[in-house]
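Teaching note: in complex prediction, the entire set of molecules is handled at once rather than each chain in isolation. The prompt given to students was simply: 'Predict the structure of this complex.' The entities are:
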Amino acid sequence: MADAVDLSPLTLNRLSLYLRCLGDLEERGVSRVSSHELARRYHLSAAQIRKDLAQLGEFGIRGVGYDVRHLAARLHSRLGLDRRHPVLIVGMGNLGSALARYPGFNQGCFEVVAGIDNDPQKVGRKIGAITVRSTRDLRRLARETGAEIACLAVPAEAAAENFLALCEAGIKSVLNFAPVRLEPRRGVRVKNVDLRTGLEELAYFLRE
Amino acid sequence: MADAVDLSPLTLNRLSLYLRCLGDLEERGVSRVSSHELARRYHLSAAQIRKDLAQLGEFGIRGVGYDVRHLAARLHSRLGLDRRHPVLIVGMGNLGSALARYPGFNQGCFEVVAGIDNDPQKVGRKIGAITVRSTRDLRRLARETGAEIACLAVPAEAAAENFLALCEAGIKSVLNFAPVRLEPRRGVRVKNVDLRTGLEELAYFLRE
DNA sequence: AGATGTGAATGAGTTCACAGCT
DNA sequence: AGCTGTGAACTCATTCACATCT
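The expected output is the structure of the full assembly:
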């Protein structure tokens, strides 16, 4: 099957998940795995795993399963994880600071290269491996670091203006933690991560 | 339309979103709003808003729109947000500490009532409004606070055992931040929030 | 006139079931 | 014999279009 097809976000998120499962298997020294085995171990659906993987081409071995390392490498490159991704964090409050130190944001191809805040009190402070910089340096920072991805972790009321600044600094993708719908901008992809929504979903299912 | 129908998680998340939009409108002093106006302001779909809201019963006014306060109140109660929800946080590392102080987790019906960690160094420390408690106190804490919801913010390798402990302490809903699929337990609802997946999704769309 | 509420049409995503390969 | 890869069936979700009400 062709390599150019676009994957849906749903498929994409599952592929990320499979990749992590494969990493786990690799660590455990497992070298081959079937869709059923994957499903059993990680509570997934075998049919769906096959459908998802089939979109990346045929490289399962019928009667046997998949080669763990080969599959992981294929996923890796298909997901765009085979090149470095510097990440900027805007808003170094509690959440921004936690993200800067979050292992998942500083592993493999991802690296948090700078934190940005407009509070002069915070500028210059070291948080984890990075130093907090002023919002005014945003454009220069983006250019110098080559960052295309930014996390927006500012309060709701500051989200719109900071998002605009990110767009103007040439950022291409934004992971938005502010509980706000950002005005769509062409050429800039936004993924909203609303932590509160998760809680509300759980609360719903607690009604008797 | 009946009140007993179960809402899908997708619908549910949008209803949460609408609720926040209505809050914003209320603050701005807007008292009536149409589905089109909501869609325009917050970049949503008018048809979908109507479909979603219709599931909660008829209380729009044809030719006019919806009463902002009335609609907000209805959503509120339908989502189960009209009673208090004490929240426990397990794992007081960077992420757990940030969540404990996160405004969205300490607003309205939600309140973080305790943080839990098995590191004796951390036990007793104050973080935001709460004090860190030992994992051994989990069961008692759950009973005393009446918490039904917990956030799991421990490293991947500690997730399974802590999840088990939560289940045994009688927790009903878990917001899981660990990049791990938890073994399903009947009677316990899990919502996975994987921050890394968000980054990976963005990285995918940066491939040329 | 203008907006809601809703069946009908369309589209997306998942599961089934089995042909085909190793 | 066993597992992949995939069309077909099915379920779930969104969009359309309009009758219905204020």
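Point out the following to students. Chain B has a mean pLDDT of 96. Chain B has two domains: 4-78, 85-198.
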